[in-house]
User: What shape does this take?
Amino acid sequence: MSIAEGKHIALVGATGAVGQEMLDCLEEREFPITELTLLASSRSAGKKISFRGNLIKVKELTHESFAGVDVALFSAGGDLSLEYAPSAAAAGAIVIDNSSAFRMDPDVPLVVPEINPAAAHDPAKGIIANPNCTTIITLMALYPLHKLYGLRSVIASSYQAVSGSGAQGIIELDDQIKVLGAGGEVTDDMKNVYPHQIASNVIPHVDSFTENGYTKEELKMLNESRKILDLPDLKVTCTCVRVPVHRSHSVSVTAEFEKAVDVTEARAVFSNYPGINAKDDPENSLYPVPLDTTKKDDCLVGRIRKDMVFNNALALWVVGDQVRKGAALNAVQIAELI
Ligand code: A2P
Assistant: This one.
């Protein structure tokens, strides 16, 4: 089926929250596509999804799904990426993988197009990894400051939307809100995605715990930031928290730099960088909130101030749409680079 001149794209996880957003991004950005193969589990096979006015049938993912595919976008979880991405690469496709499966593989580039686009060229294994959502959003704010002052360390707390848990996270929050709104109680059978009630609550637990007391999500912030920024000695400590917000993650950051910082200069630097803007006029209650960035491409930074504890340090607040810049948009931007 010919849609326009361009590439044959396969999308693994086409029925998921990020998969659907990838389709929106491909459509909005007029990505040149000759053929689109939509893949999901056998449960979704035969279902039709609309793309540029065409209804396209979802097919079941198999190892043979990738013949003739130029770019395979994967967003169906790490286990499926580990199993099927090598088949896609062996068939000649460039894989852009949204899971954490290959991110720390030294032969797999980890790319934020506004930060390290050159890393996407000629990937050794035919696989490019899309970074963790909280890491992308945080680095969108820190990279311009790093160029100005030289980043040394980061202390962060995240406020992560339920969209980070996929479609089921959004459904779980909505179901619990409905029950509470009707005067009922959230029962154990309504807690499937999160270990605690998420409506009217916050949960300091994103991904599983490791033996040093940090969660895997918190260690992604450390390890992925080091790899993307090519700063192997960067220090990062983070507490990742799930909040009852539908989409858009927020991150409170204290960042320490090599050089002396200036708040006015820091605020102004964002106007020179793509994908990030300052919204920072606290006296007029202007600072970014998750609803500001929902369904938007750009991240927003505000509350920029000199940190009172560390020298050469700024405190700030950055917000970005987790499904979009934190996942789907970043993956489509990588596809545009190759
Ligand atoms: P399906 O809808 O058929 O289950 P989310 O993270 O939003 O829940 O989305 C997960 C995505 O991964 C969905 O598109 C889902 O498809 C897909 N998926 C889950 N299990 C499989 C599988 N075994 N094979 C292929 N795709 C799968």
